[in-house]
Amino acid sequence: MADLQQQLPDDEDLQLSLFPDPPPFYKHFTTGNLARLQKIEKEATNGDDNTNESITVSKPFAAKLSAEQILALPTELRYLIPPEPPADDEDFHVFEVISKAKGTDVFMKDMEFIAKSLEAEDVLPGWTYEQLYPSPDATTQLTSKAASLDRQNYLFRFARSIVLSYISLLGIVAVDPVSEQKNEKLKDILTMVSNMHALINEYRPHQARQTLIWKMEEQVKRKKEEIEGVRKAGGKVREVLEEFARSTGSLVQGTGVEKKDDVVLPEQDRTGDAQRLMWEAMDDILGP
């Protein structure tokens, strides 16, 4: 700790933060700048004879400005105009990973990486992933047999095939540990394991839906418990208030004194008794 203090410069204005500061252009998102941009858009729309009111309303914010008009805007206003969304087949980077709006086949890229890694390590050279189960193509209807694939059945079949291939591999190794059939059998096992992995990945949308349903059910359950707790607390409050009203029923209205066991108490003692009863009621509600 002392070494760290010695390394830091002696500057009172130096501030250390666990989280980075937000980008500076967030200060441009103000009500005044939005009003300025809307005014510029309105002027641009009024200057276009071919633009009618229905088209103007239906277009997104700042979408009716041309590229030249956007570049001519001040810097603080250009930040308020969001960029155009990428096309389905257009690549963009997310944390240095190339992605597409319609999604990327990450599984096939992983299989290619595994094949290259095995080739580099001279382990199972020549292995490539081969899909052993049917999959619907882009023109297949959802009601077809290919779209309604029985994934569970294929998972069971792959599991049985892997067990049989493993038993066969043990027999090959027992006879000849350096046999070429050993590598072929290992490639078959790796291919079937990869196919099982691909089938399991196709359950991820179902898993996401079920997780969301479970989360929402938990929220509903928690809200119901909170409502029931509020109702019980309200019932306790009503009971305490009723008891408090009964205990103070002996107050003599308009006299400023309380008659208790034929003894007239002054107003100060009566107020103290009322406050004590109120604190006891609060203890009953809130608990120890």
From TrEMBL:
Superkingdom per UniProt: Eukaryota
Gene3D superfamilies per record: 6.10.140.1520, 6.10.140.200
Classification via InterPro entries: Med7/Med21-like (IPR037212), Mediatior_Med7 (IPR009244), Mediatior_Med7_sf (IPR044888)
Compartment(s) of residence: Nucleus
GO BP field: regulation of transcription by RNA polymerase II
Alphabetized Pfam families for the sequence: Med7
Annotated Gene Ontology cellular component terms: core mediator complex; mediator complex
Alphabetical UniProt keywords: Activator, Nucleus, Transcription, Transcription regulation
MF terms in GO: transcription coregulator activity
Family to which this protein belongs: Belongs to the Mediator complex subunit 7 family.
Function of the protein: Component of the Mediator complex, a coactivator involved in the regulated transcription of nearly all RNA polymerase II-dependent genes. Mediator functions as a bridge to convey information from gene-specific regulatory proteins to the basal RNA polymerase II transcription machinery. Mediator is recruited to promoters by direct interactions with regulatory proteins and serves as a scaffold for the assembly of a functional preinitiation complex with RNA polymerase II and the general transcription factors.
Complex and partners: Component of the Mediator complex.
Protein name: Mediator of RNA polymerase II transcription subunit 7
